Amino acid sequence: MNRELKFLQDKYAINLFSWYNFKSLETELEEDSSILIIGDCDENLVTPISERVNSVDLFVSTENCKKELLYQVLSKNVKLLNQYVSGEKFSEYDEEVEKENNSLIKNFKEKYDYIIIPSLTKDILSSFLCSDIKEFLVEVSKKFSGVLLVAFDNSLSIDVILGEKIDDELVAFSYEDILSGVKDIKEEYKDSSYKIYYPIPEYKFPISLYSDKYLPALDDEEQKMKNLIKIGKFKEYTTSYMLIFSLNDKVDTDVIYVKYNIDRLKKYELSTMIKEKNNKRTVIKKALN
Fold it and tell me: pTM for the complete prediction?
């Protein structure tokens, strides 16, 4: 992430999942839903979501993240579980279980409505003993029985090709990887469902969120993106992806576009969401402040 983008992220604290309706898969009420977040995160992600749902459990990987969460985030409905990689362990689970298998996620049996992975890392992938996106999607969904929301970089993004974005800790998949993976899964799990979103400028700071039903026009983005749009390769070479996946037909596909308008006076900042159902579109605008 470049310096300007990092400044905006710190200033506006927009997270990739704030727009999503985390309705309970049983009652369809957000206040009844349970969420598991896997991976290092901060209060800008955890707090807004925890205020809407019944419970949020956290698996983190680093000591720094653990300390930050303990200091800033934990409340009556937010619980910090053991770390999912080797290192100092918390006291949430019996240590005898730890000794049986170093991967705590393998022994974890809880069920959730949603599993959020804010940034897919090599540590997380290895914790599920997976090497490709197909294995990963199936393993996570079977383990926790919920709808998975995961973000990751594009291995063929224009930034990667230009050598501007390489992070050895992160896992990246291409657009073709995603399509191939979900196609293979569909052959085995007929009820599986998915939706791909395209966050711009990237998933760590998503000012715009596009989908297959609402792709950017030439006037919507900066020059680098315009070039991709012009040649019809936006989806293949965009910076990153957000994938929503379920082994059952539980993925909510109504939202086709999200935009955060932050280039204006604070009192006029707002979010715009477009939903599409039965070929009818609804525009929802909300004040950010």
Answer: 0.86
